[in-house]
């Protein structure tokens, strides 16, 4: 094992310990422990007092009591009960636990795919697995199938996403944990807020993220020449999230020699484009024709992975005097000033 692989292995050990216990250890520390308690059915480790005690002599010999007066015994017969030592019953989180699904009665014309479509994120293969049946097994009218609750699926997906996001954060930050490990930055935000590529056209700099969205535009404006418009780029701006009332607007207008590339276009509310945004551009034009220097910094703000910004932050300096507008990409282009 190379030194790099050894460091990575130790970091993974530290990460695994954090997930199971909430305790942090340095990436160079190794956790060593022995747990004599095992589940008799699947052989997995359990909490103290759950399952069966396998000490040095095996079996339940010399098993320490799970609580005063108690013994190390198997699980409670009730699936909803708390473990005898007060720890939660982990079976409660299984997909086949009665609290996590309802029974669906198959009707004429039903297929696993049609039934699974009733739940977001559930596939026919998932449904077949939960009901312990082959994926291609024909359904019978009146047959009862376990159908997970949407809240259960959502909770599982959220937990998985947090673990994946935490692992990615540690992998890209030298093994360090985020400020709040219980609520790490989403994987989506980590990917979209890094690895931007800069494109420079006509003297203007555009920073573009991994899904081809402009994230920052920095420009010292020029009064012409008027650039040729790209009708295709205007028509496709913001797809597939473009709205019927949108224009294909420019971050840097053609009158300032703004480029015709797709990254200089965005889905812009028609009234905002032809109202408040144009009025701001008119001020810039007036300043340029008065011999003044105009430098602008534009930051589109997106929701999730949407291609349509819902706000536009614009900062500009005219001969060093700064102004700021926070535009809503909605009708009338409402704004906040400072």
UniProtKB/TrEMBL annotation:
Biased segments, Basic and acidic residues type: 86-96, 240-249
PROSITE patterns found in the cross-reference section: LYSM
Signal peptide: none
Chain intervals for the UniProt region annotation (Disordered): 55-96, 223-250
Record-linked SUPFAM superfamilies: LysM domain
Top-level taxon of the source organism: Bacteria
Chain ranges of the LysM domain: 102-147
Pfam family, one: Endonuclea_NS_2
InterPro entries xrefs: DNA/RNA_non-sp_Endonuclease_sf, Endonuclea_NS_2, LysM, LysM_dom_sf
Annotated protein name in UniProt: LysM domain-containing protein
């Amino acid at each position: 094992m190379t030194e790099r692989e050894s460091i990575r292995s130790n970091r993974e050990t530290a990460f695994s310990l954090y997930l199971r216990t909430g305790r942090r250890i340095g990436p160079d520390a190794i956790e060593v422990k022995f747990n004599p308690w095992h589940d008799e059915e699947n052989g997995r480790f359990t909490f103290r007092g759950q399952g069966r005690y396998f000490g040095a002599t095996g079996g339940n010999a010399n098993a320490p009591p799970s609580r005063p007066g108690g013994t190390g015994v198997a699980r409670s017969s009730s699936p909803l009960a708390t473990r005898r030592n007060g720890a939660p019953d982990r079976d409660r989180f299984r997909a086949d636990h009665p609290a996590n699904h309802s029974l669906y009665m198959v009707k004429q014309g039903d297929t696993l795919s049609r039934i699974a479509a009733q739940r977001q994120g559930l596939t026919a293969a998932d449904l077949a697995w939960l009901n312990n049946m082959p994926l291609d097994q024909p359904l019978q009218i009146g047959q009862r199938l376990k159908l997970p609750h949407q809240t259960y699926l959502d909770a599982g997906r959220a937990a998985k996403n947090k673990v994946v996001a935490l692992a990615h954060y540690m992998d890209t930050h030298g093994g360090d944990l985020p400020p709040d490990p219980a609520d790490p930055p989403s994987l989506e935000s980590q990917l979209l807020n890094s690895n931007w590529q800069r494109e420079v056209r006509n003297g203007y700099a555009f920073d573009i993220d991994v899904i081809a969205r402009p994230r920052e535009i920095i420009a010292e404006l020029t009064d012409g020449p008027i650039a040729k418009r790209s009708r295709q780029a205007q028509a496709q701006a913001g797809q597939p999230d473009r709205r019927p009332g949108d224009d294909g607007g420019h971050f840097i207008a053609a009158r300032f020699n703004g480029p015709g590339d797709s990254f200089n276009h965005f889905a812009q509310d028609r009234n905002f484009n032809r109202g408040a945004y144009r009025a701001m551009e008119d001020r810039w034009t007036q300043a340029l024709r008065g011999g003044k220097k105009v430098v602008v910094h534009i930051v589109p703000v997106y929701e999730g992975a949407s291609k349509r910004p819902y706000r536009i932050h614009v900062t500009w300096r005219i001969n060093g005097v700064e102004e700021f507008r926070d535009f809503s990409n909605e009708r009338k282009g409402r704004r906040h000033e400072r």
